[in-house]
Amino acid sequence: MKVILDPQGGICGGVRRVIELAEKEIATKNRKVFVLGDIIHNEREVDRLNKAGLNTIHIKSLENIKPSFKLRQVLTPDATAVQDARILIRAHGEPPETFAKLKKFKIEVVDGTCPVVLKSQNLAQKYYYNGYQVAIVGKHGHPEMIGIIGHTNHDAIVIEYDEDVKKLSPDKPTLVMAQTTISPEKFEEMSEKIKDWVGNITIRCTICESVVKRGEKLHEFAKQVDVLLVVGGRKSSNTKMLHNACLSVNPNSYHVATPEEIDTIWFKDLETIGVTGSASTPLWLLQEFVDTLELWIKEEKSVKSAQSAVRES
Fold first, then answer.
1. Residue 300: its pLDDT value, please?
2. Is 163 noted as a catalytic residue in this protein?
3. Most exposed: 65, 171, 191, 231, by fewest CB within 10 Å?
4. pLDDT of residue 79
């Protein structure tokens, strides 16, 4: 039995960028660093960064703060000991009003919005202010969607279910775009349904190119192994999507968040174990799974060797 690590697995460029920004800010002496919401949808990476000095807050916690106060005075009672305080915007991005609200507090913002997401925000805004209704194929309530919708004065319509299509005006010019991490199959399916409902549409596939390529490569990898572990956070839409994609070609695919969730019965009488991860799964976490599995295989061989020696004696 052997363990194979997916060479394409793990965090995407946008997530890697915001994590590096966070680590750089944390490393600056006497700097207090805050991030609006979980920096990525991976509980263990969030915990690692929080322990390193990243403070997770939510925009709602700022709603009752008077603009006359400086944000750092509210967030850090020991503000006199803090030379600098900054707010990090995660890769999902934020609506314009978030930036406006933070500007009132006269605190520096470090924008970690993924460049691909930023392009989507600008595209939605451009079409909206040119008289189009904007339809975004994706998940209701997803942080990225909230940010993009904010760039259309919150008028864009999320298309996740069939009934969402009927919320669109059939007679209005319509831009159809996508959440950057949605599956190409989902985008194509809902785009066709929008075509049947709306007369004048412009379709722009805004799915991240790395997500598209990732899905294509993942199918190949899933077919090459007997059992596949898809490592990712429980909140991660991308992990769930990848897990479903793997199940379609390899029924022995399991979504796991921690090594403790591994059930060794999954590997009975099988030869190869694949390990992959979503766009929000750090490489150190994938390696942890590989190390755990290789240690288990080594122990299993040792036990079998000892049992064989007993039988022979």
1. 84
2. no
3. 171
4. 41
Q: Flag residues of the chain having pLDDT under 50.
A: 65-69, 72, 74, 76-83
Q: What is the pLDDT of residue 251?
A: 96
pLDDT of residue 273: 97
What fold characterizes domain 2-10+210-312? Cobalt-precorrin-4 Transmethylase; domain 1 (3.40.1010)
pLDDT tens digit sequence for 60-92:
766 554 444 455 454 544 443 334 678 999 999
pTM of the predicted structure, to 2 decimals: 0.83
- Give residue-wise pLDDT tens across range 132-174: 999 999 999 999 999 999 999 999 999 999 999 999 999 999 9
Domain with CATH 3.40.1010.20 in the chain: 2-10+210-312, 116-207
Q: Of 25, 45, 144, 160, which one is the catalytic site residue?
A: 144
Domain with CATH 3.40.50.11270 in the chain: 13-113
75-103 burial, b at 16+ Cβ within 10 Å, e below that, comes to beeeeeeeeebbbbbbbbbbbeebeebbe
Q: How is domain 116-207 classified at the CATH fold level?
A: Cobalt-precorrin-4 Transmethylase; domain 1 (3.40.1010)
